[in-house]
Amino acid sequence: MIKDQIVQKVIDNFICRSEVGQKKYGTTLHENNEDDFLNHAIEESMDFILYLYKIKEQLKEKGYSKLSEI
After folding, report:
1. Helices marked H in 26-65 — which ranges?
2. How many Å apart are CA 13 and CA 7, to the nearest integer?
3. pTM (two decimals)
């Protein structure tokens, strides 16, 4: 176990994500040399930005302008 609980949670999430991906796609990321990883990364990054904006709008609707106000 790592001392930093945040780092440990991230590691645990990566492990879980890997297991989900292996079940879904039947291969590991290491073994998969077929996919277009650059485009996957670009698309995922675009989705990430959209999700951040959605969260920001939801917070505004609840009257928050900064995370420190939550």
Report:
1. 37-61
2. 10
3. 0.72
Residue 50, both tokens: 């959209």
Phi, psi of 41 (to 5 degrees): -65, -40
Each domain of the chain, given as residue ranges in start order, spans 1-33, 36-70
* Contact (CB, 8 A) for 17 and 11: no
pLDDT in tens, 8-52: 999 999 999 999 999 999 999 999 999 999 999 999 999 999 999
Whether 45 and 56 have beta carbons less than 8 Å apart is answered as no
**Cα 30 vs. chain centroid, distance in angstroms?**
19
Residue showing tokens 């790592």: 2
Q: What angle do CA 30, 34, 35 make, to 5 degrees?
A: 90
CA 35/CA 19 separation, integer angstroms:
18
